[in-house]
């Protein structure tokens, strides 16, 4: 297990406020929440980024995330939430163990704020990129 705070939590070296656990996934409250109910969901498999995670762990996260989101929505009575997952330091990842944030929005000024500077997709570049991505799969 990687020596991150999440690895320490998974090994039982650091306590957490556990909200869900199965054989592959652990979910617990964030100790520095952006809003009430801010929950972290981590795979038990040590991987820094999502693309390094095994298909088995990724599938387990995919099964658990909707269930945990439903529980957070019901418990907090929020009207909306962000599901955030960062990969790499340049993408604002601070703990290098795959994790998802479920961040309830309980009003316009609560939770996560996002700036989205959208660009335009060039058709020729899109066609080339589709071929490259498909070939990599």
Number of helices: 3
Number of separate strands: 5
* Order of helical and strand elements: HEEEHEEH
What is the CATH architecture descriptor? Answer: 2-Layer Sandwich
Computed CA radius of gyration, to the nearest angstrom: 17 Å
The CATH class turns out to be Alpha Beta
- How far is it from the N-terminal to the C-terminal residue, by CA? 28 Å
Number of domains: 1
Description of the molecule:
The protein is α+β, with helices and mostly antiparallel strands and 137 residues long. The protein has a single domain (5-136), classed as HIT family, subunit A, CATH 3.30.428.10. Helices cover 31% and strands 18% of the residues. It contains three helices and five strands, in the order αβββαββα. The chain has helices at 5-10, 55-76, 123-136; strands spanning 18-21, 25-29, 39-43, 80-84, 100-105. Strands 1-2-3-5-4 form a five-stranded antiparallel beta sheet, with helices on one face. Strand 1 and strand 2 form a beta hairpin.
Entry summary:
The chain has 137 residues and is α+β, with helices and mostly antiparallel strands. Helices cover 31% and strands 18% of the residues. The radius of gyration is 17 Å and the shape is globular.
Helix and strand layout, with pairings?
Blueprint: H1 5-10, E1 18-21, E2 25-29, E3 39-43, H2 55-76, E4 80-84, E5 100-105, H3 123-136
Antiparallel strand pairs: 1-2, 2-3, 3-5, 4-5
């Amino acid at each position: 297990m990687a020596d991150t705070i999440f690895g320490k939590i998974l090994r039982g070296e650091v306590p957490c406020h556990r909200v869900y656990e199965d054989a592959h996934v652990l979910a617990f409250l964030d100790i520095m929440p952006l809003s009430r109910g801010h929950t972290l969901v981590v795979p038990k498999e040590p991987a820094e980024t999502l693309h390094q995670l095994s298909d088995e762990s990724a599938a387990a996260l995919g099964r658990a995330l909707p269930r945990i989101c439903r529980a957070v929505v019901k418990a907090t009575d929020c009207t909306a939430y962000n599901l955030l997952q960062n990969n790499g330091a340049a993408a604002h990842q601070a703990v290098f163990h795959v994790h998802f944030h479920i961040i309830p929005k309980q009003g316009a000024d609560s939770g996560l704020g996002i700036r989205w500077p959208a660009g335009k997709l060039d058709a020729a570049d899109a066609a080339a990129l589709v071929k490259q991505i498909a070939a990599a799969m």
